[in-house]
Design a protein that fits this description.
Shape: rod-shaped
Largest sheet: none
Structural class: mainly alpha
Helix content: over 70%
Order of helices and strands: HHHHHHHHHH
Distance between the termini: 57 Å
Number of strands: 0
Oligomer: single chain
Length: 232
Amino acid sequence: MKKQSVHRQYNFPDADLYLLCMERIRDAHRDVQYFEQYGYSMDRLKGFKNLCDQLNTLPDDDELVGEQMLMTEKKDTASEKLKTAIRSLMTRVAMKYNNRSGRYRKFGTAKMGDMTDAQLLFCGRRVVRVARQQIDFLVEVGVNDTQIQRVVDAHQDFENALNIQQDKIADRDISVERRIEQGNKLYQELIVLCNIGKDIWAERDVSKYESYTIYESNNDQKIARKEKMSES
């Protein structure tokens, strides 16, 4: 059964969530005697802090995208080296066979520049296989084991680079999901803490009550400030 995708339960950056949680944890430390009356112990507060630390150590998306881009660049470089090796061999094949002939077309290198990564991998294997089959006919134009091995090596390098790139893409997907799950845990705990804090100060101190209010966006914060200023 396919796992359902995880959705963020908050609509502000993780960095803002982290700072908001740390600020509220400091408030809760100040108000710990009241929190304990709700069964919210110091140990739970320490656990909340640990959740914050865990989120802060996870790599962010910019870091993961950067790694993915580097691996893509290496894959693209390996792709061009494979194409160069194939073209070099096919230059010799064209000296022996007309490029419209069946023997030439058997190599399957037409429109190589437009091939997908998967198609290029398939093409590289086929070029090596067909070249070895016809090597006795191609010796006179310089096709030998060294030429074929050059394609083999370039193909292996490209396949390795492609696999690493795909691994980085998968790693990013997994890491993004893990970060969302961790952020959601943090947000849920923040809501619990803030609900307690608001209940504590609802009829005692307006400013402390406001400090436990979670705003979903900067615009919400601006509206709240304006309302507060108009009331004063």
